[in-house]
Amino acid sequence: MQKTDRPKTSGFKFPKSPTGIKGLDDITTGGLPKNRPTLLLGNTGCGKTIMVYNLISNALKFSAPERQLHITIKTEVARGSNFRTEDITDALNRLSPEKKYCHISITDNGIGFDPQYKERIFELFQRLHGKAEFAGTGIGLAIVKKIIEIHHGVITAQSKPGKGATFNIFIPAF
């Protein structure tokens, strides 16, 4: 197993890459209002770190070699009934209309994947590429999905080959 496939619970660093991103401190986020509800993730030092680490690691791993990597992380908090986007209708139908959720969207401009695999990528040991092409075990997204489900949340993936991918996470905010 490669070092990048095994997250530590704290103090980890990403391997050096052409993007210049070396760790989570090199990534900026925005969009959460100052008076936002508290987002409870149980053991935030471990679960949240693993979730973000795996999603960012995939964006780095599956970057398109012909263009500079761009990763966008957006966040917002709203009631389930206030989220409206046609791309993720299936996820929105699983949200309680009156409950508040933290929505985290992670988008990259990597190699993307065929939309027919948008559910399969979250299954344990599932890979869309051979090990010779991309290193990994096929458990990263399964772990992310399990962490989100434990917290009564929902995750979706949207992509097209060559067009990058977007992962939308909805976790109840308290």
Mean pLDDT: 71
Unreliable stretches, pLDDT < 50, 5 or more residues?
Answer: 1-45
- CATH class reads Alpha Beta
Any idea of the CATH topology? Heat Shock Protein 90
- What is the string of SSEs from the N terminus onward? HEHEHEE
Q: Estimate the global geometry from the Cα principal axes.
A: globular
The major pleated sheet works out as: 4 strands, antiparallel
Overall domain count? 1
Query: What is the SS-derived class?
Result: alpha+beta
Estimate the strand proportion.
Answer: 15-25%
> Which superfamily, in CATH terms, is the homologous superfamily?
Histidine kinase-like ATPase, C-terminal domain
* Helix amount: 10-25%
Count the strands?
4
Give Rg in angstroms.
Answer: 16 Å
Assign the CATH architecture: 2-Layer Sandwich
The largest sheet has its strands arranged as 1-2-4-3
Summarize the structure.
With 174 residues, the chain is an alpha+beta fold. The chain has helices spanning 44-61, 89-92, 140-150; strands at residues 71-79, 100-108, 154-159, 165-172. A hairpin with a 5-residue loop joins strand 3 and strand 4.
